[in-house]
Amino acid sequence: MASRGTMKASGNFNASADADALYKSMKGLGTDEDAILQLLTARSNSQRQEIKVTYKTLFGKDLVDDLKGELGGKFETLIVGLMTPPLAYDVTLLRNAIKGAGTDEKVLVEVLASRTCQQVKEIVAAYRQEYDDDLEEDVCGDTSGHFKRLLVILLQANRQKGIQEGNIESDAQVLFQAGEKKFGTDEQTFVTVLGNRSAEHLRKVFDAYMKLSGYEMEESIKRETSGPLRDLLLAVVKCARSVPAYFAETLYYAMKGLGTDDETLIRVMVSRSEVDMMDIRTDFRRMFPCSLFSMIKGDTGGDYRKALLLLCGGDDA
After folding, report:
1. What is the CA radius of gyration of the chain?
2. Are 4 and 277 a contacting pair, CB within 8 Å?
3. Cα separation of 111 and 123, whole Å?
4. How far, in whole angstroms, is CA 223 from its chain's centroid?
5. If you count Cβ atoms within 10 Å of the first and of the last residue's Cβ in the chain, which end, N or C, has fewer?
């Protein structure tokens, strides 16, 4: 599958020349932020890893430490994110979401609902290797109820493959009985079905559910559940429909209204820049009254804005 990202590998890549250029941009008085962001956003993540190794070989210093020492604020967070391998980035996001003050449910929801089964398996293994801890145990220690149960199901990364034609109607029926049709809600049914069926199977179930109940799946979840469970169920449903559309919506609401949720903005722009940013932009333009580019431009400033716009990779007027 061809990447639908905006960040591509540089054709005439030279790690030594890049390491040298970065060293010079931080040497002496003042830092050339523009040179740093122009260079790093024109390289793929694996090329940035090569630059990191070469930088240490040439100068005996850690590139990321040097960048942290020279940069600050949101711009620093963004650049350090770009310097992190994708798997390590996800693992660190989850660790901080669990081990920080309070639990950052938003991060748990976004990462575990949107990553593929293969990615989740890799995250679980890398988490154990990095921290000598069990991700599932850490998640369980920090969450409760059906929210916890669905997170545990997603961490098993055992979704069925393909479409079970014989189960489409019965899955829709079971969800209808568990929610709209009964007094109170049987959350366990929602958790089990939405956590275990493949995306393509679920899309057929949602169509059947709509015919049966007269409601979109999302409408029923909003009415029948609340709190973090509701957020997670909605994310799972939206990702089953379309992962890029889910991220387009996530970005829109990170910037809409008063203030910007910069953590979310950085997280999505960094983690999707080499995956599906082109599709996210297309969906954003279709779903909202402006382009992703114009919204970022109006909502951010300085080097931070420059770097984000380069990750966005163009305007869709």
Report:
1. 21
2. yes
3. 10
4. 26
5. N
Task: For the chain, give the secondary structure using H, E and C.
Answer: CCCCCCCCCCCCCCHHHHHHHHHHHHCCCCCCHHHHHHHHCCCCHHHHHHHHHHHHHHHCCCHHHHHHHHCCHHHHHHHHHHCCCHHHHHHHHHHHHHHCCCCCHHHHHHHHHHCCHHHHHHHHHHHHHHHCCCHHHHHHHHCCHHHHHHHHHHHHCCCCCCCCHHHHHHHHHHHHHHCCCCCCCCHHHHHHHHHHCCHHHHHHHHHHHHHHHCCCHHHHHHHHCCHHHHHHHHHHHHHHHCHHHHHHHHHHHHHCCCCCCHHHHHHHHHHHCCCCHHHHHHHHHHHCCCCHHHHHHHHCCHHHHHHHHHHHCCCCC
Let me know if 228 is exposed, middle or buried by CB neighbors in 10 A (0-12, 13-18, 19+): buried
Q: Name the one residue in this structure whose structure tokens are 């575990």.
A: 112
For 36-46, give one letter per residue: b (16+ CB within 10 A) or e: bbebbbebbbe
Q: State pTM to two decimals.
A: 0.96
Residue 19 token pair:
């390491």
Distance CA 229, CA 186 (A): 13
Instruction: Measure the CA–CA gap between 262 and 254, rounded to whole angstroms.
Output: 7
- The encoded tokens of residue 64 equal 């990321």
For Cα atoms 172, 176, 179, give the angle at the middle one, nearest 5 degrees.
Answer: 140
Q: Which two tokens stand for residue 51?
A: 């630059």
